[in-house]
Specification:
This protein is α/β, with parallel strands linked by helices. Bound molecules: 2-acetamido-2-deoxy-beta-D-glucopyranose (4 copies). One 2-acetamido-2-deoxy-beta-D-glucopyranose binds next to loops.
């Protein structure tokens, strides 16, 4: 019997449910079980439509056709044809779709909240003024924490926050945004200095989550931006940008090292690091092995490799094409993968082996290790 039916039959039960709606739900046996809340932070790989509600430009929005075409009607604002990694993770964890924090229609966040914003980076300078940077996302989470403390009290809030899983996608825009300004990418910083700044700011946010009582973090390596369709389309001969390759490798090495340090430093800190970079590279190089026909070009866009970011025709360039069969493609637009690819990634993030997601996978973080 569905929870809704029980509520209709048993009004007394309803008030009990409402008291505990903070973080309880009914198991199939009718016992109360606590669910694990899910908070999502980051960039367009996770943005469920927060950018629909900020003052930005259509470069940083995707709430128009054909975005969402495989799943969301009308388009939600996700930068894909359908669902994203956190949408599948929520499903595997038995949670509803996690609400978009900035959508004014949402005001209950007991299952969690999604703060991610397309274009966002760890550095406030990355696409400043057009996206909600990671630090501001943490502030929003702080506002929500206060709201929980007022509504649920301290002990239930502490429990909710320490059981919760916090998912991150961050870094890509910190490396992409300077490329648009100057091909000599990170001037005046060395690669090492710049990557350290990005990782330093991400670390500040992880520590911020930990201070508020969060313990379990899921994060991915940064994707192989060097051969992104949007990067190749802007370069003579449509070559890959090797400098971006060097920088993303450096980022991924430093991230992994930093997480190992935090595990030792921060009490109770646990993490799942999913090697998205490797998984994306494999699909771009060998698409047919993963059920795709095309691994290097976008389904929706224009120009070489569909690399001009014109999907939807609202970003200054009106002409674009849309492929016939979206699931044949790894890339939906010149910067973002298709729903089919997100589902594959989510499965590996959820229960992948330690060669892919380590030291824990998300399933373990959600279920707890005790
Ligand atoms: C939105 O941004 C534009 C350009 O940055 C600015 O001119 C405008 O005043 C902003 N509008 C609001 C409501 O903040
Ligand atoms: C781009 O970076 C180089 C240094 O790497 C610098 O000399 C040049 O002035 C920069 N160009 C612009 C437009 O900022
Ligand atoms: C965070 O980024 C800013 C630039 O936005 C930089 O000045 C600062 O040093 C960085 N913080 C850390 C801890 O690296
Ligand atoms: C789309 O592609 C998938 C995978 O290649 C295939 O299974 C499906 O039949 C195709 N659909 C259409 C309408 O061609």
């Amino acid at each position: 019997m569905a929870v809704a039916d029980i509520q209709l039959l048993l009004p007394l039960f309803v008030s009990f449910l409402l008291m505990f709606r903070g973080y309880s739900s009914l198991s199939s046996e009718g016992h109360f079980v606590e669910h694990v809340a899910f908070f999502v932070f980051g960039d367009s790989l996770y943005d469920p439509g927060n950018n629909n509600y900020i003052n930005t430009t259509t470069d940083f929005q995707a709430n128009f056709w054909p975005y969402g075409i495989s799943y969301f009607h009308p388009p939600s604002g996700r930068f894909s044809d359908g669902r994203l990694i956190p949408d599948f993770i929520a499903e595997y964890a038995g949670l509803p779709l996690i609400p978009t924090y900035l959508d004014p229609r949402n005001n209950e966040f007991v299952y969690g909240a999604n703060f991610a914003s397309g274009g966002a980076g760890a550095l406030v300078e990355s696409h400043a003024g057009f996206a909600v940077d990671l630090k501001t996302q943490l502030q929003y989470f702080g506002d929500l924490e206060k709201h929980f403390r007022q509504n649920l009290g301290d002990s239930k809030t502490d429990q909710l926050l320490s059981d919760a899983v916090y998912l991150f996608s961050c870094g890509g825009n910190d490396y992409l945004s300077p490329v648009g300004n100057n091909d000599s990418v990170l001037y005046p910083y060395t690669h090492q200095q710049y990557v350290s700044m990005v990782i330093g700011n991400m670390t500040d946010v992880f520590k911020g989550i930990h201070e508020k009582g969060g313990r379990k973090i899921g994060i991915t390596t940064v994707v192989p931006l060097a051969c992104w369709p949007s990067i190749r389309a802007g370069r003579p001969g449509n070559t890959c940008n090797e400098e971006l390759d060097i920088i993303s490798s450096l980022h991924n090495q430093q991230l992994s090292k930093k997480l190992q340090e935090l595990e030792k430093q921060l009490e109770g800190f646990m993490y799942a690091l999913f090697d998205l970079n490797t998984e994306v590279s494999k699909r771009m190089k060998n698409p047919s092995k993963y059920g795709f026909k095309i691994g290097d070009s976008a389904c929706c866009g224009s120009g070489p490799f569909g690399g001009i970011y014109s999907c939807g025709g609202k970003r200054g360039v009106e002409e674009f094409y849309l492929c016939d069969n979206i699931s044949d493609y790894f890339f939906f637009d010149s910067n973002h993968n298709t729903e089919v690819a997100s589902r594959q990634f989510a499965e590996l993030f959820w229960n992948g082996e330690s060669s892919v997601t380590a030291p824990y996978n998300l399933k373990t973080l959600f279920q707890g290790t005790d």
